[in-house]
Every structure is written in structure tokens, then in C-alpha cells.
Amino acid sequence: MNIVELFEKARLLGDKEFAILENEEKISYAEVLLSANKLSNFFFDLGLVEEDNIVLSSKSKKVIAIISIAAYRYGLSVVLIDNHSKKERVKSILDSSCPKISIIDEELVDNWDLANYKHLVIKPEEKQKSSTFKKLFSKPPAKPEMEESTISYPTCLNKYAGFEPKFPEIINENSIAYILYTSGSTSEPKGVMITYGNLFSHLETLQKVYQMNASTRILNVLNLFHSDGINQGPMLAFYCGATWVSPFKLDTTQLDNFYYSIYKYSITHAFVVPTLLAFFEKLHTGYEDSFHTADFKFLISVAAQLNERLWQSVMDIFKVRIVNVYGLTETVTGSLYCGPDDALFKVGTIGKPIDCELKIINDAGVELGENAAGELLIKGSHVMKGYYNNAQATTEVIQQGWLYTGDIAIKDFEGFYKIIGRKKSMINSGGFRIQPEEIEEVLMRMPEIEFCKVIGVEDSILIEKMLAFVQLKDHQSMDETDCFKFLRSNLEPEKIPSQIYFVSDFERGLSGKIMIDPIKKLVSQNQFSDVNKFGSNLETIIQIAAQTFKVKKEEITALSSSSNLAGWDSLNNFIFITGLEEQFKIQFTTAEIMSMKNIQNIDTILSKKLSNA
Amino acid sequence: MSLLFELILLVIPVIILSWVIPSKWVLGMQVFFCGLFLLYKSPLSFIILGAISISNFYWLQHPKIPKKVKLIGSVLMLFVSLVFVKLYHNFQENWLIPLGMSYYIFKNIHFTIETYLGNIKKDSLLLYLAYNFFLPVIIIGPINRYPEFVKDWHRRRFNTSYLSQGFERILFGIAKIFILGNYIFTYKVEVYLSSLPDKYIWLKTYFESIRFVLNAYFQFAGYSDVAIGLALLMGYRINENFNNPFWASNMRDFWSRYHMSLSSFCKDYIYNPIASYYRKPTIGIIATMLIISLWHQIGFQYLVWGIFQAIGIYAVGLVSIPKDNRFIAMFGRVYVLNFFALSSILISENSMEEALTKYAILINFF
């Protein structure tokens, strides 16, 4: 289905919920269509035509979703910019995309210094919160000035009430639907061009793979300025005639809201990133039944590589299937799907391709067979048109219709693909794909710095965390906090490295390039010493538990507890704890014993106790 | 009985309102109606519960008081008020009847200890009041847990399967109370047993003890079913209180299936801390059973009854019984019913003398 057909379908849905957002705000399909009708008149009056670029940025999920859908129906090309982006980056994106108009939140005009660019300010209509008594006896509010109503959204649409929509009859499949700027250097931003053909053929694939229909309710609270947020949230819901649920901001301190939402909103599909799953693994006590509802089908992990151990562990805790999706911004969202069907499902892999062709090649460009590692190439109707106004970058990654992913993969005998490395320097931290060169470029702006290198290392929460290594110029000194302060003022929060190390020199290769492997080796050695300090007693704990509860060691996992392990009753619990005390020559306090919920938790308490001893 | 119907009558508007009014007012409405019910049935309970809820909440919230002092202060305040009222209640010929006090004191102890352990982090006075003033469980439990209550509140939505399950549980509950409890085990069996000639005194005494525990079980399980059903109609799931207890094959298993909300409370907050503190599980078992017995009523008969239950549980560890043997399991079930029924003679009679007379009759048979 294309956008024109989708609008026809949406007309039949009327008052059906299209979205449920913060504060229980509900948007119906009828409201989306009405807004789109008015916006088409607004776009027309602005003189916009198909494939004109418009910039869109707002903290309001409703505004982003509605304007995007309306712009697609009008045939425009939407450039989404994260409202947390820094001025420098926005400027480079604007210079690259040359939008006809920017529709942005009011505060962004000053923050981004956009007064000289053509823009429309978004000012949400404030609902009157006065009591019924006040409403009855107070004077009616004064009508807004005409000028005001014409310069802000959505009041600028009021004058189009009752107007016929000014939609083009057809939208060219090769027109650009949106441009999403990925992390790249400021001087050369990379805008991924996704055509209408790319977008809607991919939504068709997603609907088919995820088995979605009009009764689907998608929980997707991911950032709307990323492909997985906008496309697998509002756009996928709109495509299926389903409901997109996004009632809170993704925040790991509000994890319980995620769990509660599954039942509360009768969710069928929930999108997560591996970092969120890492938090699920840590904070699950009392929430293990969250996905056991009559409606819920599966979790879908997107945006980053899903660690096999974490994947299995979260599935074991919550007794729920996690579908792993591999894709890039350059392929709209996905390409390979591990699940939901058994035929596609193999933990530890990225599954199999759907609606696209794959091949793995070596450095000489020769296609490889099974179990041979090489670069993964993708070809399909969902592969981007190219990078906006950047022919060189496009040619580097697309050759004869094949997209060079930069990921090193192997294909096993059963046809499942697995990512085993990366050819590009891209870092995937907490679900954000970050080009380290962008951070290095900012660091190098500091006059004290001679050289620097940013690398990604494995991390249990962020999947990959960024570390910055800095070499100062002679006779220069700098505080770590100054460095962070500078980075924070020039980069988005997700691009700030976890740590900054000062080094006296970098090891370099023959060409003079800074070598990454020696740095990584140094870091991994330090990290291993941390790992050894923590959790090394698990084996002994399991052994004592097996002896006490008279079960096989293999039956006990870190998540075993009195509720799921035979023989772990209150009396044996006591024997088990005294057994641990004897083994480790310690004595637990009553409070510690009462806090012990499962093997993992006991390991944590024991490790703390031993480190304090 | 009328208490049950009055409760059901009042819960009906609460159920309807809780699905009609905006969700931000639902908790307040629940507290209001439950408070109204307490004020109507037992103003003293309203005062005690209101005072305990608010003082305990702010005491535990206080930023300057050390955590341990908060814990000890709160548990002591709750425990002393329970003991005081229970003793006073006995001495003053029942004029003072705080409704459901044993339940809400234990609920508050649970809240205090979980707050101390750091398992309750997001505090809200309204949620805490709603937990304490929760109409379905206010009279006779089950002792529902705060994190579960909060979880269900946040998950709450209109669910037709909860609705049908709720009605079903209420129906089962009423059937257990009226058909099995009141009609069969209170009326029919009692009439039959009292009609037996005196020469069957042993049989009469023995079956009377069985009748007593089965009647108590069906009445109590029936009330729990009604409470669970009413809560489901309001959109909350509360923990089960019974799991076929007479299907247990030993006394340890029995006490994990009988009045489960109380026994799991005692396991978590009495057995575990005491057994781990003294490093002696036997002390934990004795303390737990004593608390369970005195929780019912403070008195010598209940004390001895509790010791009997502790012996029954302790004895399980002394004998090695092969698992998965159907004959032994069946024998165990007969043993459990008899052990519980015969030991409960201690609490079914008005005085220790009367209980001993019953035991003398039963022993004379041999």
C-alpha cells in the first residue's frame, strides 16, 4: 500500500484510536486525517510542492506523528532533527538540506539561532484547567489576535476548517519521504534519503513479519528522531490501522511504567533496545509476569546488536520471546529478523533475511559461502536512495544496488546469519549509532588537545560504551571535568563518552594512524579485573544450593529462587544460608537474609559482604 | 452474615464508580467509601486505622530518623497497639470491636519492613491509604501485599475476564459459606451428630472435631473467595488464601496451603528473621506458630494450639518419607486432617477444662 491508499483505508477507521500518548491523550484516525487535510492547505498556501524539504523538530510526539503523516500525503520530504541537537549540528543539517520551512518548537528558534531561517513555531494549544465554577462565571477568553493565529502551529490551521484537502492524486515512489541525518562529521553530514517506495515497501514487510493487523497495539517509546522510533511506532501503526502507544518517555528510572503498560494498554508488540533489556534483567523482581497477558505476543529488540547471554536471560526471566531485528537507518529499519516464527528463530543470531537479498563478501569482493566471515551486503526495495547531496559517500556504500553494511557476518549451515564484528568505526552505544569521528572532531576543537581517539568497548548496560583518549599538547594541562563540560555544550547527551583518559602518547601504525587495538587491549585488561571482583562466587553458591536443595547443579541458574526451584523451602533456605556462611567464613545480618530473593541476588549480597570484609 | 451483605452492598457503587469516574479520583473514592463503611460499622476501627496509616507513613518518610529506629519504632507501635486492643477486647466483654485490626496491623508491619529493606521506594500517601482502606479485604483479609497492590493499580484497566472471574469467585465464596459451611457443616451435620445416642459419644466427639475444622475452612475460604472476587471486579488481583489445604500430606505442607497470606507473612517477617538471627530454625518455627495462634486470639488455649502446630511442622523434618508414593500421600492426608482437627479441639471449646474433657473421651476409646 502507498500513502494514498493508506489514507483511504484510514478514513474507514474513524474514531478508532491511532495513538495513546502522555497523560492518556488519545488521537483518533479521524483527528489525524482532519489535521492532514488542514495541513495540506497550509502547505499549499506556503507554495510547497512535492519533494520540497521541510524540517520538523518538537518535543511533542503528537506533533511529530501528525505532521509527518500529513507531509507524506502531500509528497514532501521530511527532515527530522532531534530537539536536543546542538546548534552546530543543526546548522550543518540546515545548510545541507536547505529546507523550505522549519516547523519547530518555540524555544528552538533561540536555541538554534534560527530567526533568519523561514520557520513556523509550534505552540501547543493550552487546555483551560479552570474549574466548572470558574468556567461558568468567568468572562469568555479573548480571541487570539489574527496575526498570532497565523504564525504558530496548530492555531495556523484553524482558518482551514471545512476546506477540501489539497493532496496530490499520486505520490511518486522515487520521491524522498524523509531524510534522516546519521551521526557523522559536522563538515560532512550524512543524510539518509528514504524514498516513498523504500518506506512503504518496508512497512509492508514489517507488518507481515510481526503479524500485525488492525487489533495490534504497539508499545514504542523510542526516540522519534530515530528510524526505529518513527517508523516502527506511529508509521507502522498507521500502516496497519493499529494503535501506537507511547505514554511516557523512555527513562530507565521509570522502568515500572514499561511493565505496567503491557497489561494496562493491552499491548501486543513492544519495541525495546538492548540497553533497555539490560535494565529489564537487573530490575525485574515482582514484574516477571508483566508480559503474560492474553494479548501480548513478543518483544522486538532493535537498533543494536543483542548479546546472546542477555537475550536468553531476559527470555528466561519473563518467559517471553524476544525477536531480534538487524537493520540500518539506510534500510529504513530492518532487513534480517530472528523470529517471531520458529523457522526464523535462533538465539545469538540475527535470523534470516525477509524481502531482501544478502551476500557476504571478502576484501577482494568475492562472495563467500557458509561459515566464512566477510562483509554483509544487502539489496532490496527498502535500501536507501543514497546520502543527500553526498554522491561520494553514497558511492562508498552502494554499488550496483548492493548496500555495504560495514558489518562482518557469517552464515551458518541452517541459513542463520550472525554478526561477528564491524568494519566501520561506528559505535553503537545504548541503541545510538555514533560515529567516533564526530566526537573526535569536537575534542580537537579544544586548544589544549594534540591528539585524541574515541573507541567503543563492550559494556553490560550500554552494549558498547565510548571511551575517549586524549593526548595534550606540550606544557598544556586540562581537567577531565573541563573536557566533559566542553563536550556537553557541543554534543547530544548520548554522544558524551563514559570516560576520558589522558595519555602521554599513542601507539601508531606504519601509516602514522593511531592504532586502536593496543588501546582496547589495555582497557579490556582493566575491565577483566573488575569482572573478577564481582560475581565470581556464583559457581560455589550454585554448588551449595544443589547440595542443600537436592537438585542437579544444571537445574540451578542465577535466577533460581524459592518460587521456582524444588526443595527451596523456608527450612532449607536457612540451611543453605548457614552453608554459605560456613563456606565463606562470614555471617549475614538478618536484614541481608531477608533481602535474599534469588541466586543472583545472593551473589550480589555475598560479593558486597566479601569486599567489605 | 449481615456484615458480608452490607460490605457487598457498599462495594457495588465503588465498583461502578471506579470504572466511571476519571482515574485520578479512583483511589480517593475507594478510600472514602471504605472509610465510610468503617465509620458506620466500627468508628473505633476508622480512628485506629486512620491514625496508624498517617502516623506510620510520615514516621517512615522522616528524613532525619535513622532507618533502624524507624523500623523498630514502627513495628513496636503497631505490635503494641494490636496486643493492647486484643487484650482490652477480651477483658471488656467485647464492647470494643476493632474491625479487621489483625489484618491491617500485619499489612502495616509488612509495609514497614519492606520500606526498611528498600523494596518500597516510591511512596505516595494516597496509594498507602488506598492500600490500607481497601474495602474487599478490610474485614477478613487476605493480607494483601503493598507492591502487588501498587502494581495492580498501575496496570488497572477494564477487563471482561476479570469481571467474569470476579463474579465466579463471589458465587463460589457464597456457596462455600452458605451451602457447605452454614447448611451442611453447621446445620445438617451438627443436627445429625447431636441426634446420636450417648453410647456413640466417642464417635460424636471425634466427628465434631472434624466438623469444626471443615466448617471453619469453608467459611473462611468462602469469605476469601468473596474478597478476591470483589477485588477483581474493581480491577485488582489479590493473593490466594487457600490452596486445597486438606490435600497436603504433612503439616509443613498444610501450613503452606492454609491461610496462605498469613503463613507467608509469618514466613517472611517472623520465621526468616528469627531463624536467621538465632541460627536455629526450631526457634523460628515455634515463634511463627505462636504468633499465628496469638494473632487469632490472645489466650492460653491458642498458645497451646500454636505449640501443637509447631510440633507438627517440626516432626516433618524428623521422618524421611519417600516422595511420589500414592499410598503414603493418601495416608498423609488422613493424618493432616486428623492432626489439625484433634489439635483444634483446644480452640473449639470455651475453656481448657472442656477441651481436656473432650480429649479424655477420645483417649478412653483405647
SSE order and pairing:
The complex is a heterodimer of chains A (613) and B (366).
Chain A lengths: L2 H9 L5 E4 L5 E3 H17 L7 E5 L3 H14 L2 E4 L6 H11 L3 E5 H6 L7 E4 L9 H6 L8 H6 E2 L22 E7 L7 E6 H15 L6 E3 L7 H14 L2 E3 L9 H10 L4 E4 L1 H9 L15 E4 L6 H11 L3 E5 L9 E3 L13 E2 L3 E5 L12 E6 L6 E2 L3 H7 E2 L2 E10 L5 E6 L4 E3 L2 E3 L1 H8 L5 E11 L3 E10 L7 H11 L8 E4 L13 H18 L4 H12 L20 H15 L5 H6 L3 H14 L1
Parallel strand pairs in A: 1-11, 3-4, 3-5, 4-8, 5-6, 6-7, 10-11, 10-12, 12-13, 13-14, 26-27
Antiparallel strand pairs in A: 1-2, 8-9, 9-19, 14-15, 15-16, 17-18, 18-21, 20-21, 21-22, 23-24, 25-26
Chain B lengths: L1 H19 L2 H19 L1 H19 L5 H25 L9 H16 L8 H8 L13 H10 L4 H35 L6 H33 L17 H5 L4 H19 L2 H16 L3 H19 L7 H18 L1 H4 L3 H13 L2
Helix pairs in contact in B: 1-2, 2-3, 2-6, 3-4, 3-5, 3-6, 4-5, 8-9, 9-14, 9-16, 11-12, 12-13
Please provide a written account of the structure.
The complex is a heterodimer of chains A (613) and B (366). Chain A has 613 residues and is of the alpha/beta class. Chain A has 20 helices and 27 strands. In chain A, helix 2 (29-45) packs across helix 3, helix 8 (196-210) packs across helix 9 (227-240) and helix 17 (538-549) crosses helix 18. Chain A is globular and about 80 Å long. Mean pLDDT of chain A is 87; it is low at 144-150 and 527-535. Chain B has 366 residues and is mainly alpha-helical. Chain B has 2 domains: 2-139; 163-364, no CATH class. Chain B is globular and about 65 Å long. The two termini of chain B are 41 Å apart. The model of chain B has no long low-confidence stretch (mean pLDDT 89). Chains A and B meet through helix 10, helix 18 and helix 19 of A and helix 7 and helix 11 of B.
